[in-house]
């Protein structure tokens, strides 16, 4: 645990009122940011990437989380590895951030050389009696869950990731995410705290006013509404929508596609939610006309009418559709800056310009992410204003934000803050 400052973090945690957003300092203070990294990005499971980030032996990519640098790679036997990017000689970084191809991991400082398993194979001028066996690169605890890579930097990883693993291995199997191809990637740096980024993603209260492209295929009613404010016609439409949900969910599950909501959002360490959502309009994909962007479907999918299998965790959100997937990972950079890394996945043999159009594949979520970045920046600027006071969450449209804030407080206290 980090040392508490005189104006303690615990006082901020105590000040949070049920049903309200967090006190400003929990979004803005640098000491809280350091505590967040310690608790939520070192001691909890976080999503950092994909099996298909490193499709071939020798492929490697570096991911940086706070002061920690990780190497995700595939070794010569085709096995995934996650290693600390710290030479065991004097601590130099081995690889720079981003993707590369390596045959061995060679420290640029003194040429200590490691196999792709992490084993130290060459340490010049260290003497004949030098024991290389105890100087391999430090491994990182990780799981590949249906092709999504989760890591935990703690020596005691939370065991309740088991529900996420059981649920998503089955749900992701038809999509073939492990062997998919990354068709496109964007890195957007938002001018806001990571918790504001996650809060923004967990509600669609703002969608109709801010995401015209997404709302072609995404149904904002799915995440709550106040029935008293709807016209009789809109209320009837909403009731029909939820009747359709029950019907579709039963039909999908009868066909062997798990669809009902599964969530672990409170009294837990590993925070997640998944559900198969109906896609509006043409019903095929999250594109500008809701039709599939790729004629080559993912994995061994044969249907385009299976909706959107959404999954979120405390640093990621994902949408898996018949033709493509959108995977977003959130990495805090400072109290007021957050990296949102988004990847669009297609079938491994899909060819751009033949099987899919890249603009159609990406334009909805590129627009949505840019729009969200603006909203998060506005929210963060507001938390810095002396006039900010935590406001009430909608009990209809923002219940998941209240759960997230409550979970955040609980986890901080569980780790001594």
TrEMBL record:
For activity, the cofactor(s) needed are:
Fe cation
Q: Which UniProt keywords apply?
A: 2Fe-2S, Dioxygenase, Iron, Iron-sulfur, Metal-binding, Oxidoreductase
Family annotation (Pfam families):
Rieske, Ring_hydroxyl_A
Q: Name one GO molecular function term.
A: dioxygenase activity
Q: Which residues form the Rieske domain?
A: 45-151
For this entry, the protein name equals Aromatic ring-hydroxylating dioxygenase subunit alpha
Q: Which InterPro entries match?
A: Rieske_2Fe-2S, Rieske_2Fe-2S_sf, Ring_hydroxy_dOase_asu_C_dom, Rng_hydr_dOase-A
The UniProt entry, under Gene3D superfamilies, shows:
Naphthalene 1,2-dioxygenase Alpha Subunit, Chain A, domain 1 (3.90.380.10), Rieske [2Fe-2S] iron-sulphur domain (2.102.10.10)
- SUPFAM superfamilies per the record? Bet v1-like (SSF55961), ISP domain (SSF50022)
């Amino acid at each position: 645990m980090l040392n508490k400052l005189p104006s303690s973090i615990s006082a901020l945690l105590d000040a949070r009122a049920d049903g309200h957003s967090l006190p400003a300092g929990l979004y803005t203070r640098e000491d809280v940011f350091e505590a967040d990294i310690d608790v939520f990005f070192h001691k909890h499971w976080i999503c950092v990437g994909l099996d298909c980030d490193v499709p071939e032996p020798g492929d490697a990519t570096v991911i940086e989380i706070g002061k920690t640098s990780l190497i995700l790679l595939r070794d010569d036997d085709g096995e995934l590895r996650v290693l600390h990017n710290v030479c065991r000689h004097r601590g130099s970084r081995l690889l720079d951030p981003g993707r590369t191809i390596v045959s061995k991991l060679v420290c640029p400082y003194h040429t200590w050389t490691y196999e792709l398993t992490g084993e130290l194979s060459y340490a010049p001028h260290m003497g004949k009696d030098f024991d290389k066996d105890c100087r391999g690169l430090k491994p990182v605890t990780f799981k590949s869950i249906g092709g999504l890579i989760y890591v935990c930097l703690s020596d005691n990883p939370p065991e309740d990731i088991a529900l996420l693993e059981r649920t998503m291995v089955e749900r992701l199997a038809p999509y073939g995410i492990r062997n998919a191809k990354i068709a496109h990637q964007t890195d957007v740096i938002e001018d806001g705290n990571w918790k504001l980024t996650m809060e923004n993603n967990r509600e669609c209260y703002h969608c109709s006013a801010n995401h015209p492209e997404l709302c072609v295929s995404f149904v904002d009613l799915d995440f709550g509404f106040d029935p008293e404010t709807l016209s009789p016609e809109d209320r009837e439409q909403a009731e029909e929508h939820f009747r359709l949900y029950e019907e579709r969910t039963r039909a999908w599950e009868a066909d062997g596609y798990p669809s009902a909501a599964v969530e672990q959002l409170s009294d837990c360490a590993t925070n997640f939610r998944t559900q198969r959502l109906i896609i509006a309009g043409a019903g095929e994909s999250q594109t500008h006309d809701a039709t599939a962007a790729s004629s080559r479907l993912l994995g061994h999918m044969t249907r385009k009418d299976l909706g959107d299998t959404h999954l979120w965790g405390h640093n990621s959100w994902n949408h898996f559709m018949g033709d493509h997937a959108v995977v977003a990972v959130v990495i805090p950079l400072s109290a007021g800056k957050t990296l949102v890394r988004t990847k669009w996945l297609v079938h491994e043999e899909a060819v751009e310009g033949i099987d899919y159009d890249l603009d159609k594949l990406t334009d909805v979520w590129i627009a949505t992410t840019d729009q969200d970045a603006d909203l998060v920046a506005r929210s963060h600027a507001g938390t810095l204003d002396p006039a900010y006071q935590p406001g009430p969450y909608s009990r209809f449209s923002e219940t998941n934000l209240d759960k997230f804030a409550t979970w955040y407080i609980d986890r901080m206290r569980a780790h001594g803050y």
